[in-house]
Amino acid sequence: MITLIKRPQPSKLWTFATPVLAVAITMVLGGLLFALMGKDPFEAIRTIFWDPLFHEQFAAYSRPQLLVKAGPLILIAIGLSLGFKAGIWNIGAEGQYIMGALAGAATGLALYPMDAWFIFPLMVIAGALGGFLWAMIPALLKTRFNTNEILVSLMLVYVAEQLLASASLSWLRNPEGNGFPGSRNLSKIEAMSNPELFAGTGVHWGVVAALAAVIAAYVLINKHMLGFQIKLSGESSRAAGFAGVNSARLILFCLGTAGALAGLAGLFEVTGPAGQVSIDFNAGYGFTAIIVAFLGRLHPIGILFAGLLLALTFIGGELAQFMLGLPSASIQVFQGMLLMTLLAMDIFVNYRVVWTSREVAQ
Amino acid sequence: MNFGGIDPVILLASLMVASTPILLAALGEMVVEKSGVLNLGVEGMMITGAVCGFIASVESGSPLVGFIAAAAGGALLAMLFALLTQVFQSTQVPSGLALTLVGVGLASFLGQNYVGVKSPLTTKMPIPLLEDIPVLGPILFRHDAMVYFSLFAVVVVWAVLKFTRAGLILRAVGENHTAAHALGYKVRRVRVLAIGFGGAMAGLGGAYISLIRVPQWTDGITAGIGWIALAIVVFASWKAPRVLIGAYLFGGITVLQLNLQAAGAKVPVELLSMSPFLATIVVLVVISARSKGAAGGPAMLGRIFQAR
């Protein structure tokens, strides 16, 4: 029979091996799912994971898209990972992302048609601030009243979605838009746009910010006292208390940083790839980033790779939808399965699985 | 009686309809949490129930078959969570989130050919004699069977938890799994059963939306109700009668804001639509501030049980 023995320390080897294994297992399970739907599983998996990068016809378009999609995912996931490490569950990144986009876009549009160099940087600050303040709501409620941050941050996603709808229908609507919902096209206004920095690469300011966040998080976690406190709180909040960690300050920091980064992601998206504030502007990055954070093992470098992989599933999913008629929801199932497989395999990280015969079992 | 185009009798009757999905899901989740497990996948299980119920009732022509399928679908999806948390010892918070992601995707995937299809109508089951009571009759006793079932379920869950041996074991497992294990109770088995029950109830709640309240299938039909159900368990301090109060309170807000929208109130529609979520936050704050956190919450909530 199988016995589980708790490891004194999480296994280093399995920590690195499980994400890779989880991807492989999810591919098999996903293949089975596609086969059940009557599609050729090999073709489907190839279309999702290989063609966006190497297909002679599509790769030229989809390769830059990889960075466009990975940018916000990585930016948000880095922020979330800090909280997750400390046992602070910010599930509302989607709302913080929306609020960042709204605050940034509103700041820019308030200055329209002014044309000055400082408008875009101002919008960036407003975007980060929008997400930060939105995340401060669950953070302050948690530190003040011990209100559950999971539920509050999530409720605020639905509130933000309604604010987004109201913005695109009324207070940010393009006055020259012939009554269609949606704001002015920010990507077409030079002072407010977040253009591709190097032609054909997909790199825009959001991607740069994502890379900067990866480096900053790496330094914070490994070299800074605050990073140590985050890790300590996650392992044992009691021990952290004895070590003099101020848990309220940690909650404010983790949620605030996550909110600011999600807000930045929203701002860079609305001024670049999305172009305008519209009702369906949010694409679920805030939720997918949760998967990215876990798949990346809450480690900055891991998150970088996980972000690229999840971006690939987005692009490959679109391609599979277009080429094979796979429903777009099947990619969501796929992404969810990936997280589940990974969580299931955590058992190898935290436990030694030993076969024992019944007779010897203590 | 008529206030600004809103008839209070119809309002209260539709309150019961709007509250039933939340009530069913929250009641199920309360039992799960009583066993010491925090399943954040309610939204996913609800929407899976909604789509399973819809498909089964369209294909069979019977709403009853639909509800049975919904309960089965919800419970089956919940077994994925049980597998993760009870067999593979995964952390419950991300596992629940994963369940929601899978559930929402799966539902939209299964339901794609059913958008715009009509489901068979559920007949009302007015209760003889009682339905003729003025005012109260139309409010309370002219509903479909599921409304009565949900009220009945509150009584049963309350009584089982309070008075039976099974209820005692469930609570013991949730309060102290090590002690319960030492006494020889099967901690994992109890929890798996509770998770399954929670999934079935969430499934029924979801199907109530897709079969009776809306009645049609659209992507994202549960629209956050599963999360409100989770908040209501906290609001109710893990007590069945209070789950009823909480669900009806929030159903009331939902119905009221919908009626105000329909009546063309001079409040922005978006503000009305976000009001149930804002109200949930306010209530959570009040409850947490008063009780200094999760008072009445099972002590082992969210902890991983290791059998030695």
TrEMBL record, chain A:
The lineage of its organism: Bacteria, Pseudomonadati, Pseudomonadota, Alphaproteobacteria, Rhodobacterales. Keywords: Cell membrane, Membrane, Transmembrane, Transmembrane helix. It comes from Celeribacter marinus. GO terms for cellular component: plasma membrane. This is Nucleoside ABC transporter, permease protein 1. The keyword NAD does not apply. It is found in: Cell membrane. Its main location: membrane. It is a multi-pass membrane protein. GO terms for molecular function: transmembrane transporter activity. The keyword Transmembrane applies. It holds the Pfam family BPD_transp_2. InterPro entries: ABC_transp_permease.
From TrEMBL, chain B:
One of its GO terms (molecular function) is transmembrane transporter activity. Keywords: Cell membrane, Membrane, Transmembrane, Transmembrane helix. It is found in: Cell membrane. It is a multi-pass membrane protein. The keyword Transmembrane helix applies. The keyword Transmembrane applies. Pfam families: BPD_transp_2. GO terms for cellular component: plasma membrane. It comes from the Bacteria. This is Putative deoxyribose-specific ABC transporter, permease protein. It comes from Celeribacter marinus.
